[in-house]
């Protein structure tokens, strides 16, 4: 991907793209039907974005991902980070 693309995302979100890419790579083989895995991912995204996720919201996100089989990928993570700004 284009280096300017990453710089633009960093500028817009205030998030280090190296951290996001490491997270995205770790998600490639993750089991999103496993609640523990999903909670870990949510906590990691919140940490990277420097945001607190209330327990109620975390529970809702976990339920949605596990029940709907929603996949997390780089685009989804970027959208989550952008929506938190």
From TrEMBL:
Any Pfam family: SpoVIF
Entries under InterPro entries matching the protein: SpoVIF (IPR025942)
Domain of life: Bacteria
Record's protein name: Sporulation protein
